[in-house]
What we know:
single chain, about 400 residues, alpha+beta, three-stranded mixed β-sheet, globular
Amino acid sequence: MSTALETEEHQALRAAVAALGKRYGRDYMTTVIREGSHTGELWAEAAKLGYLGVNLPEEYGGGGGGMAELSIVLEELGAAGSPLLMMIVSPAICGTVIARFGTDEQKQKWLPGLADGSLTMAFGITEPDAGSNSHRITTTARRDGTGPDADWLLTGRKVFVSGVDIADATLIVGRTEDARSGNLKPCLFIVPREAPGFGRNQIEMELHAPEKQFELVLDDVRLPADALVGDEDAGLLQLFAGLNPERIMTAAFGIGMGRFALSKAVEYARTRQVWKAPIGSHQAIAHPLATAHIDLELSRLMMQKAARLYDDGDDVGAGEAANMAKYAAGEACVKAVDQAVHTLGGNGLTREYGLASLITASRVARIAPVSREMILNYVSHQTLGLPKSY
């Protein structure tokens, strides 16, 4: 993959993370999945080398970078076959939201641990009856008493929350009632894993990954006043400040996976000989792989644009670019994996080559955290100015 547009520092980071990923690779990941364990060793080493907290402020132990750097880390680990899905959630979403909007106490409590990997935080927004419509979120928080120091009581349900079993806390998107209008407004709360009334049930998935998916039940979970992140009246702004990094990082996840699959297919096509020449010499094999490479490169360019806009503080511009990057990367990832499996034929479905499991995993980049259809809706009415259909 060409990196000429990147700074020397970014190219060095890319090379260093690629070397770390190569030491672990797909075999490590498949072993972890088969044993039902977690990627603790890789997470700890990536943290020790400063990669997990590269986007967090230096004063709290981070690298002082942004989404540009963090997306490089996830992409290169993915290209090596060992992506860390919790990077999307813990440092990218939760770390960013707390760094931008948290109180001094929240920053001191969470950011150093998120940066050095000793603390992880999950993120809960999706609900059974809300799906992509965040305006239908029914998880609500109410004060138990009056005054700014009164506790919160949080009640509701969430689904498809990654890594709750290993996360020290979950950043929950809820809603509070506006005292003036009576309307519900979004707010974010930090909920410790062992908080009374905070229940979790694992969702059985066909997707095989170290990170498990959970349904959460919040039954009058009592939280101190300072569990609320940031300003109660700026919840929507704070929410989108976390969702743009989520889309950028999901793009990195998809691009990395697509690159891994493509590299396996190219290696196979170079050496696999059925008639008198390697199968890669046939255009029916070569051209689809070349197309997959082009699509992945184009996706990365949009991801880099989104990261640059976000890191420069252009939340509106980053929103459009992050959605486009996530869409493009999801499509490119699915097509690259599909073509890689097809290139290997029957071998593409064997455990030895490690591609078949990606058929399911690659769909994640299309479906989560927002469907491609909702991104097309966004571009239709936000970018093109077309009327809404909903």
